[in-house]
Design brief:
The chain is of the alpha/beta class. The chain has helices spanning 6-24, 30-42, 79-82, 90-101, 139-155, 167-180, 213-216, 223-239, and strands spanning 60-61, 67-71, 122-126, 161-165, 197-200, 203-208.
């Protein structure tokens, strides 16, 4: 059980709401602004009647979470359409299905931002906040988004377990950690693999293959594999109560 701290939770909620507004208003990357807007106008035929979000996508979840999950970027017709990270595409269904099986989500799928999904003890976010062309942000775009992730690290002090979905998120977390603690081990000592686990300061970094269709359709990431790493995250979270 997590200790209750209503004042801290209220302050964190307010701070995250302010942070969310900074995220949503961001115009730092002209290429991403143009792409997300283009996708929102042209749409996919299956969603032609919907109004796309077409803006940067903030994180969401439990503001007193002990597990912070970090993905790569919004999907063009997923979160860029729905306005909520990992919502409205098969990658999200794969992830939320696993969270539901672990008791961390109240439902196994997420189709839109008002579908009633609630997360318990988990906050989900991404390295890059706008849908990038080809799902490949540039290094400059990644670094433009870096302050958003750093702010979430600071605003979610209860999140002692960082679950990186893919090498991209894993490496960015280590870059941030190295910049803040340059006397610690260099990031190249911690190679990404599925189920990799390293202590970074007071937190534990876990790795999982990203739940992209490229990984889940080919069997590179199975339900047993993601259930295993989320189970490990839960185990570590129980050991790190504040």
């Amino acid at each position: 059980m997590k200790p209750e701290c209503p004042q801290r939770d209220q302050a964190t909620t307010a701070a995250l709401a302010k942070h969310e507004q900074h995220v949503v208003r961001c115009q730092r990357c002209p290429r991403l602004v143009a792409w997300r807007s283009h996708i929102a106008r042209t749409k996919r035929a299956a969603y032609s009647s919907e109004t796309y979000w077409g803006q940067p996508v903030p994180g969401f979840g439990d503001t007193s979470a002990r597990i912070l999950i970090i993905g790569l970027a919004p999907a063009a017709h997923g979160a860029n359409r729905t306005g909520r990270v990992f919502t409205g595409d098969r990658s999200g269904d794969f992830l939320f299905g696993a969270l539901h099986r672990a008791g961390l989500a109240n439902q196994p799928t997420s189709s839109h931002s008002g579908d009633g999904l609630h997360l318990h003890d988990v906050f989900v976010t991404s390295v890059v906040r706008c849908a990038p062309p080809g799902n490949k942000p540039t290094a400059h775009e990644r670094e433009n988004c870096r302050p958003f992730l750093e702010t979430e690290f600071d605003l979610l002090p209860t999140a002692r377990v960082l679950l990186a979905l893919g090498a991209y998120a894993w490496n960015q977390i280590l870059r941030i950690h190295r910049a803040r603690s340059p006397h610690l081990h260099p990031s190249n000592m911690f190679r990404f693999t599925h189920s990799a686990e390293v202590a970074i300061g007071t937190r534990t970094l876990l790795g999982s293959y990203h739940p992209s269709q490229q990984n889940t359709f080919t069997g590179r990431l199975t339900t047993d594999m993601i259930d295993g790493v989320i189970g490990r995250a839960c185990e570590l979270a129980r050991k790190t109560d504040l």
